[in-house]
């Protein structure tokens, strides 16, 4: 018969009692030891008592410091240093370099021209954002009556950025940029339009008609990341009663106090449609204008305008220059990839031709020194990376060893490539040797180009790893390209002979 088990609470109580007794015993022993130490210390002569007290105090202090270091909360890692702002001279230099490489830079130059034009105008630019049907067009009509943008109660009428000249309550003017909302244009197009106009503007107004959805929250925080003054305006506030409006504003302020410079409730007006029941029971559709109430937003915009565009211009200029610099860097990287691909193809063809011209081609696939050195140097020049002669020699020696160890594999792959082109096999073993040589150079060139692009240095170990992977499993497209180079070179050589 199984023995009954003790209830779990009794076991926990017993463990707690034992632990408390042990702790109490430890405290009593510690106090007793301290008292004995004190009595013996008092009996010592003064010349010995003082140094011992100092040593004890130093030990206790060191132990306390160590315990504090171990017990204190871990510090968060320091934030990465902010990249220094891009200067206009730096951006102009990058564009000049792109022109020298025959890169189309008209879009970058147009962005800089717009930057200069807006700075010279001295006008305040405010970008207006919001999802579809949040009332952006109605707000523009209220702030800039002369613009009279088309209003469609179905929503979704804005297809591109429009600029309208508005006026504040004190008579000062501003330029309103109406950015298409999400849902009005393709998401990628909207994001690019939004990014560009947020960068060009002095300030941003984000319009919402209710509490923010997850998508709106993400967009608002994204816009706040540009570092521009951001105003969050709750539109159609007249549709809520005082309690609802106050509660909604409180929630928005709790969530976006760090992102928005001001959070206000407004009514942009516009028109609304509703149905009403007549005395005879019939129902009719009615459209009426709603009165605009923009005072809180006008006050917030007026506070920005009071600072003057000179105070807001540095942040705007820095944002635009940073974006132009980023796009310039993307163009430079794309150009480097294109030029690197052309260089790899050029040297692969030279390797193939050299292999076909060899008097006694063998199975040894050592990198040809002159071609290999020239390939490395040209790729380094394309990517703007300085390389030393010793680095080039070390790279070719290491890759040469890798190629030796994979000679049989490379020759087998080259042989399979020959089967894809009828008639190649009848041209002799020189073609096999040429395809293998071409495959080595193609792999070496792509490995070096990728390493230089990713690491901005000639990392020998990384190049070797990439070469080994490219030789072990060459893509079909690469194999066919190299085999076609060998076939064309062989035919040219045969016709010349």
Return the domain count. Answer: 2
Helix content: 55-70%
CATH T-level topology of the largest domain = Rossmann fold
Radius of gyration: 38 Å
Strand content: 5-15%
CATH secondary-structure class of the largest domain = Alpha Beta
User: At CATH's second level, what is the architecture of the largest domain?
Assistant: 3-Layer(aba) Sandwich
Strand order across the largest sheet: 2-3-1-4-5-6
Would you identify the CATH H-level superfamily of the largest domain?
P-loop containing nucleotide triphosphate hydrolases
- What is the quaternary state of this protein? single chain
What's the main sheet like? 6 strands, mixed
Q: Alpha-carbon distance between the termini?
A: 103 Å
Number of helices: 16
Average pLDDT score: 78
**How do the SSEs run, as a string of H and E?**
HHHHEHEEHEHEHEEEHHHHHHHH
Record field, number of beta strands: 8
3D shape: flat
- Helix and strand content put the structural class at alpha/beta
- Ranges with pLDDT <50 over ≥5 residues? 73-83, 148-158, 359-367
Task: Describe the protein in words.
The structure is a single chain. The protein is α/β, with parallel strands linked by helices and 497 residues long. It folds into two domains: 125-307, Rossmann fold, CATH 3.40.50.300; 332-496, no CATH class. Helix content is 62%, strand content 10%. It has 16 helices and eight strands. The strands form two sheets. Strands 2-3-1-4-5-6 form a six-stranded mixed sheet, with helices on both faces. It has a two-stranded antiparallel ribbon with strand order 7-8. Helix 12 packs parallel to helix 15 and helix 14 crosses helix 15 (460-472). The chain is flat and about 95 Å long.
């Amino acid at each position: 018969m199984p023995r009954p088990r003790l209830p779990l609470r009794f076991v926990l109580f017993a463990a707690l009692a034992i632990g408390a007794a042990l702790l109490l015993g430890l405290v009593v022993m510690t106090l007793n030891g301290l008292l004995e130490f004190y009595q013996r210390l008092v009996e010592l002569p003064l010349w010995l008592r003082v140094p011992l007290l100092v040593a004890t105090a130093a030990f206790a202090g060191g132990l306390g410091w160590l315990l504090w270091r171990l017990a204190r909360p871990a510090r968060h890692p320091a934030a990465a240093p902010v990249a220094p702002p891009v200067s206009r001279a730096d951006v102009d230099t990058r564009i000049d370099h792109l022109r020298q490489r025959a890169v189309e830079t008209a879009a970058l130059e147009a962005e800089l021209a717009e930057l200069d034009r807006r700075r010279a105008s001295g006008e305040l630019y405010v970008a207006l954002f919001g999802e579809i049907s949040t009332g952006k067009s109605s707000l523009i009509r209220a702030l800039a009556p002369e613009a009279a943008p088309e209003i469609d109660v179905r929503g979704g009428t804005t297809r591109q950025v429009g600029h309208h000249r508005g006026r504040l309550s004190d008579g000062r003017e501003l330029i309103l940029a109406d950015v298409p909302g999400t849902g009005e244009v393709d998401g990628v197009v909207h994001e690019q339009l939004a990014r560009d106009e947020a960068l060009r503007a002095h300030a941003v107004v984000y319009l919402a008609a209710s509490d923010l959805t997850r998508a709106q929250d993400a967009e608002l925080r994204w816009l706040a990341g540009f570092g521009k003054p951001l105003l969050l305006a709750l539109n159609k506030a007249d549709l809520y009663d005082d309690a609802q409006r106050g509660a909604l504003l409180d929630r928005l302020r709790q969530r976006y106090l760090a992102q928005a410079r001001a959070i206000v409730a407004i009514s942009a007006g516009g028109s609304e449609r509703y149905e009403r029941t007549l005395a005879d029971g019939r129902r009719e559709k009615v459209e009426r204008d709603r009165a605009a109430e923009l005072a809180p937003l006008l006050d917030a915009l007026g506070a920005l305008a009071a600072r003057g565009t000179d105070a807001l211009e540095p942040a705007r200029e820095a944002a635009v220059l940073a974006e132009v610099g980023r796009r310039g860097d993307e163009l430079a990287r794309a150009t480097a990839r294109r030029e690197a691909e052309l260089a790899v193809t050029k040297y692969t063809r030279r390797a193939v031709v050299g292999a076909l011209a060899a008097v006694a081609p063998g199975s040894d696939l050592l990198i040809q020194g002159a071609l290999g050195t020239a390939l490395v140097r040209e790729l380094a020049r394309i990517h703007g990376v300085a390389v030393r002669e010793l680095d080039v020699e070390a790279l070719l020696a290491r890759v040469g060893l890798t190629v030796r160890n994979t000679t049989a594999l490379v020759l087998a792959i080259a042989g399979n490539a020959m089967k894809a082109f009828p008639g190649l096999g009848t041209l002799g073993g020189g073609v096999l040797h040429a395809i293998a040589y071409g495959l080595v150079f193609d792999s070496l060139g792509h490995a070096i180009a990728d390493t230089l692009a990713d690491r901005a240095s000639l990392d020998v170990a990384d190049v070797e790893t990439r070469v080994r992977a490219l030789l072990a499993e060459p893509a079909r497209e690469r194999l066919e390209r190299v085999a076609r180079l060998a076939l064309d070179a062989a035919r040219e050589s045969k016709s010349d002979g």
